[in-house]
Structures are given as structure tokens and as C-alpha cells.
Design a protein that fits this description.
With about 200 residues, this protein is of the alpha/beta class. The protein has nine helices and nine strands. The radius of gyration is 16 Å and the shape is globular.
Length: about 200
């Protein structure tokens, strides 16, 4: 069974995608996978997000997950759409229990020690740190992570190609979430491939 750690260690960056038009989904996924970023987080921020998940799953090599999953209803919808992992901006007991029961790889958002402790009480050890920069950036995460040596993170929110290497140098950070690899609008395939290739090299 795929674990969330498997998803987080496929590449140093998980693209955070806002797909505004369904016809953008496949070329966007193709470009990102070609550039070396196979794990794609499609956020539930647009009307076509679920259809985008279904479409992107047809791209060879793509591992398609859902982001902005807020509750059990969202979880059920993305599972029906075929999402292979789930990312949430926070952690509630109902969502956490439902995700764990479903067996789907789950990356809940945390911003403080209490969030992490709540997750650990549920048996979770891998978390999204969100919103990363607005929550105090890398110094804040270093301070929070200190007491939790067995926990790993994917910081997301405000991270750029320029700042990602500093985040990735921390031993408890397995990957970062980033939107810079997929600029808004119709996909410019060659540009996205180039951005993805540079992002994929960050973990080298």
C-alpha cells in the first residue's frame, strides 16, 4: 500500500495546482511529469477540480492527489474521482479519522505544536506546514519541529524557487509544496517543463 511518505519522497516539490479550465488539465500534467514532478496536488478551488483529477490520472506517470480537502464530504468526492493522496489545510478529528479509515495517503495541515500533537494522537507522523511563510517561515518550523523528532513535513504557502533549497536542507522536510511550477492561465508546456526540471533538481 502506498504511504504518504512514498508520495513526499518522489520529488522535492509537489506542484499545488489551481486548474481553472478542464482543457488545461492534461497538458499541465504531461508537462510536470515530463519535467520530473510526478505527484500533482489538484486543489478543490475550482468547479472543474474533480474532473481535472480524473483527466490527469490518464497521464502516464502522474500520481494525482487532491488538495483543499476540508471535510468528510470532500474526502468522499475526491476518492470517487480517483485521487491517490489527500492534502488538507488543517486537521479536524472527523476528517482525520475518515482519512485514516479509508487508507488513502493523507497529509493534514499543521501550523503549531498542538496541531502536530493532535495528529500524532491519531497515529499520523507526516504533516503539511501551512501557511509556511505566513506562519513564521523556516525559523518557526525549526522551533516547532524540535520536540517532534519522528515527524516529517511538507511546507506549503509562499515558498518560491529561490527559497525552496533552504527549506529542503532541513532534515525533517521531505518536500515542499509550490505553485510557481505551474503559472496561471493556459499551460505553456515548454516553460512548465523547464520550471519542473529545475524544481526536480532541488533535491539532488
Amino acid at each position: 500500500m502506498t504511504q504518504i511518505r512514498d508520495i513526499m519522497t518522489k520529488a522535492p516539490v509537489i506542484p499545488v495546482l489551481v486548474v481553472e479550465h478542464i482543457d488545461h488539465a492534461i497538458p499541465l500534467a504531461e508537462a510536470l511529469v515530463e519535467g520530473g514532478l510526478p505527484c500533482l496536488e489538484v486543489t478543490l478551488r475550482t468547479d472543474c477540480a474533480l474532473d481535472a483529477i480524473r483527466a490527469m490520472k490518464s497521464v502516464d506517470g502522474a500520481i494525482v492527489g487532491a488538495g483543499t480537502v476540508l471535510n468528510e464530504r470532500d474526502l468522499a468526492a475526491v476518492e470517487r474521482a480517483g485521487a491517490e493522496f489527500v492534502v488538507s489545510p488543517g486537521l479536524t478529528q472527523p476528517l482525520g479519522k475518515a482519512a485514516i479509515a479509508s487508507g488513502i495517503p493523507f497529509l493534514p495541515g499543521t501550523a503549531n505544536a498542538s496541531d502536530i500533537m493532535r495528529g500524532m494522537d491519531m497515529g499520523l507522523t507526516h504533516f503539511k506546514f501551512f501557511p509556511a511563510e505566513a506562519s513564521g517561515g523556516l525559523p518557526a518550523l525549526k522551533a516547532i519541529a524540535g520536540p517532534f523528532g519522528t515527524v516529517a513535513f511538507c511546507p506549503t504557502g509562499g515558498i518560491s524557487a529561490e527559497t525552496a533549497p533552504e527549506w529542503l536542507a532541513h532534515p525533517q522536510i521531505l518536500c515542499v509544496g509550490g505553485s510557481w511550477v505551474a503559472p496561471k492561465g493556459a499551460p505553456d508546456k515548454s516553460k512548465i517543463v523547464a520550471l519542473a526540471q529545475k524544481a526536480a533538481e532541488l533535491g539532488a
